[in-house]
Amino acid sequence: MKGKQAAVGFIFVTVLIDIMGIGIIIPIVPELIQELTDFSNSKSAFYGGLLAATYAVMQLLFAPILGGLSDNYGRRTLLLISLFGLGLDYLVIVFAPTLAWLFVARIISGICGSSFTVANAYIADISEAKDRAKNFGMVGAAFGLGFIIGPTLGGVLGEFGTRVPFMVAAGITLLNWLYGYFMVPESLSAANKRSFSWRRANPIGTLKSISSNKVIVPLLISLFMIYVASHATQSNWSFYAKEKFAWTPLQIGLSLGFVGVMVALVQGFIVPRVVKRFGEIKAVYTGFAFNALGLTLFALISEPWMVYAVIVPFALGGLAGPSLQSIMAGQTEANAQGELQGGLTQIMTLTAIIGPPLMTGVFRYYTDPANEVYFPGAPFILAAVLALLSILVAYRTLSVIVMKKHK
Questions:
Q1: What is the rounded distance in angstroms from the CA atom of residue 318 to the CA atom of residue 332?
Q2: Which CA distances in Å does 354 have to 11, 57, 75, 106, 113?
Q3: 331 neighbors 401 (Cβ within 8 angstroms)
């Protein structure tokens, strides 16, 4: 029993570190790029988008590969390799002499950060039926907590130097690797191991399968647009806040931490209550509307205090995602639910490849002194348009579902 508890704790910290690795760089990436180059904030934003897309490409390619390898060599082995690789990745950033080395680090981080798939498999291996939901809930909590701690830690430690957050992250990661090496057992028995197959490690195959369900295709497209729109904040926020308000990494990190707290509150407390009272479809429309409103207001605000006021309606946009996913699950056969969830993960990863260079590219264009129009909020307007388009794309399918329920 104690061994299982130690293993669950190890997985919790591993996932937390993985997600922190995504967030910790966000508040300081403008300063880090400009420290290594002579780029303006406008040009740095575009390269920041490329760094984020590089990470996502590696995740897309390596998540199914690491999952397959863990079925062959064991979960513990792959998790330890991933953790050690992440520790090295942070050290590469600490000592990176040029921008090219940041891309090398993001490649390593994307590959090793794909261990989320393996972590879930480890939990599935060690959990009894009665504890499975609770243990997966802990992994989900680590995921959410990472998005709060990562940017906040990056902002706070970034005040002492752009490399300091990565020194701390490297230390935490390697300490967790040591703990896992000495204290955590393998979860996969020899009888349950299977040979690795490149065919089964195909990152696109799942998307082809779920797209055969014509009922949910418009909803998938709608979700795709919302995920792309989210990168107006996820990939662009640091550059926007620095450009418009001259914010420091600390101010950027604290604002992103507040976003994380608000999103957690919406997902954990408001979504269940709204869905119970008004239903999933109304929750989707309400979420899309709040999303578009929040994004539009971000584009137009003129004072720093307004940021925190706008974060509240923007976070309420989180009503849409879980409700839309639930509707899609309800339109999918019971024996294809795992495939659907895998496909949704792939869509999220694809948008993390497309969204960052798109949004930071728009930001670069509208903040370039060579252009006549100066409008740092342009990416948020584009994102708001995508949010409104998602309503139109989803409307017909959702209307058909409503009609079926009333028959």
A1: 22
A2: 30, 10, 31, 16, 19
A3: yes
Please report, in tens digits, the pLDDT of each residue of the chain (407 residues total).
Answer: 455 666 777 777 777 877 777 778 889 999 999 999 989 999 999 999 999 999 889 888 877 777 667 667 777 787 888 888 888 988 999 999 999 999 999 998 888 765 666 676 677 667 676 666 566 666 666 777 888 888 898 999 999 999 998 898 888 888 888 887 887 776 666 666 666 666 655 666 656 666 776 777 888 888 899 999 999 998 899 999 999 999 999 999 999 889 888 888 887 788 888 888 888 888 888 999 999 999 999 999 999 999 999 999 999 988 887 788 778 777 777 656 656 666 777 788 889 999 999 999 999 999 998 888 999 999 999 999 999 998 888 887 777 766 666 55
Query: Angle at which helices 75-95 and 99-112 pack, to 10 degrees?
Result: 170
Query: In which residue are the tokens 């330890």 written?
Result: 80
Q: How far, in Å, CA of 131 to CA of 117, rounded? A: 19
Give the integer Cα–Cα distance in Å for 27 and 171: 20
The torsion defined by the Cα of 321, 326, 332 and 336, in degrees rounded to 10, comes to 80
Angle at which helices 237-245 and 249-265 pack, to 10 degrees? 130
Q: How far apart are CA 5 and CA 97, in angstroms?
A: 42
Closest CA to 83 of 179, 211, 198, 190: 179
DSSP-derived 3-state class of residue 202: coil
Query: 230: helix, coil or strand?
Result: coil
> Which of these, 179, 15, 7, 25, lies nearest to 90 by C-alpha position?
25
- Token pair, residue 378, equals 């342009």
Please tell me the distance from the alpha carbon of residue 50 to that of residue 358, in angstroms, as a whole number.
Answer: 9
260 in Cβ contact with 151 (< 8 Å): yes
Angle subtended at Cα 273 by Cα 268 and Cα 279, rounded to the nearest 5 degrees: 120
Cα–Cα dist 247/376, whole Å: 14
Q: Which two tokens stand for residue 168?
A: 């701390």
Map tokens 């014509």 to a residue: 214
Angle between helices 320-330 and 280-300 (to 10 degrees): 150
CB count in 10 Å sphere of residue 42? 20
